[in-house]
Amino acid sequence: MNDLHAWLSQQHHGLRTFQTFQHKLETLGRDDPAQRGLCRLLSGIVGSYVEAFDEAPLPVEIAEGAYRRLLTLVESLDLQGDAARRLADINRVATCELWQ
Question: What's the pLDDT at 68?
């Protein structure tokens, strides 16, 4: 996730960033099966956001807020943590809403 966080921190808050992030998650989940579940959860959250605003006006304050929440969420994940930490991360991701 460090690589994803580094990449994400250099991006704009537009929908294209979120779409590209989803593709990066798919690749990570495919290349690292131990992270597949977490990647799918993150991808689902990002996908819901993209679907909600695809081809619709996206207010800047919503875009910036969603981007900051995603950046903070990705930064907080510990892929090397013990089982309890990983479960806590998964539960936090599962309850995350980027824009509401």
Answer: 96
**The pair of three-digit structure tokens given for residue 55, joined into one six-digit string:** 């081809």
Residue 12, helix vs strand vs coil: coil
Residue 4, domain extent = 1-95
Q: Residue 54 pLDDT more than 90?
A: no
Q: Where do we find the tokens 């579940």?
A: 37
Verdict on whether the full-model pTM lies above 0.85: yes
Nearest to 66 by CA among 51, 77, 79: 51
Q: What is the DSSP letter of 97?
A: -
Q: Judge whether 68 lies within some domain.
A: yes
- Considering only the C-alpha atoms of the chain, give the largest distance between any 2 of them, rounded to a whole number of Å: 42
Q: Is residue 86 part of a domain?
A: yes
Indicate the number of domains in the chain: 1
Rounded average pLDDT over 5-26: 95
* 44 falls within a domain: yes
